[in-house]
């Protein structure tokens, strides 16, 4: 009985240790991608981000890692493959916000000023994807108001 209990405790410890190692590896990968971006090595940053996002469709990433990856993808979108990078950024953003919005908002709120624009872009895209009908009506209303203001008669 004691041996069985010891086996269970040891198994739990190994599982927890493996999980923290995985978090550490992902964190280190994101640090490497940040460094590559800082050194204008966009190809390396792209490869690192792609390797992180390929892991079980983001299932292994915690909220902060998802937020970091979303910002990295938005930065990469400025340097190439815009559609794919923005799509991955939005996937990370949406997953982070839907799983733990308070933590995600806290992370995004702590970003330096030069990265806040990416949060605003993702937030705007998220709103437009969530409610395309409302945006269409808003655009039509704006167009009608524009025409009313600029009548020549």
Order of helices and strands: HHHHHHH
Protein structure class: mainly alpha
Query: What's the mean pLDDT score?
Result: 79
Rg: 21 Å
Helix content: over 70%
Overall geometry = globular
Mind summarizing the main beta sheet?
none
Count of alpha/pi helices: 7
Beta-strand portion reads under 5%
Low-pLDDT sequence parts: 3-21, 144-153
Question: What distance lies between the first and last C-alpha atoms, to the nearest angstrom?
Answer: 94 Å
**How many distinct beta strands?**
0
Please explain how this structure is put together:
By secondary structure, the protein is mainly α. Helix content is 83%, strand content 0%. The protein contains 7 helices and no strands. α1 packs parallel to α3 (63-77), α2 (42-53) runs antiparallel to α3 and α4 crosses α5 (101-109). The longest helix has 37 residues, at 2-38. Mean pLDDT is 79; it is low at 3-21 and 144-153.
């Amino acid at each position: 009985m004691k041996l069985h209990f010891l086996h269970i405790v040891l198994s739990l410890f190994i599982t927890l240790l493996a999980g923290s190692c995985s978090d550490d590896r992902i964190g280190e990968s994101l640090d490497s991608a940040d460094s590559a971006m800082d050194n204008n090595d966009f190809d390396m940053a792209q490869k690192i981000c792609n390797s992180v996002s390929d892991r079980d469709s983001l299932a292994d990433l915690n909220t902060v890692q998802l937020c970091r990856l979303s910002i990295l993808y938005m930065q990469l979108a400025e340097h190439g493959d815009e559609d794919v990078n923005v799509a991955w950024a939005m996937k990370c953003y949406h997953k982070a916000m839907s799983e733990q919005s308070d933590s995600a908002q806290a992370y995004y709120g702590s970003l330096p000023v030069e990265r806040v624009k990416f949060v605003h872009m993702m937030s705007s895209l998220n709103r437009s994807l969530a409610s395309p009908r409302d945006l269409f009506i808003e655009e039509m209303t704006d167009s009608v108001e524009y025409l009313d203001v600029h009548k020549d008669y």
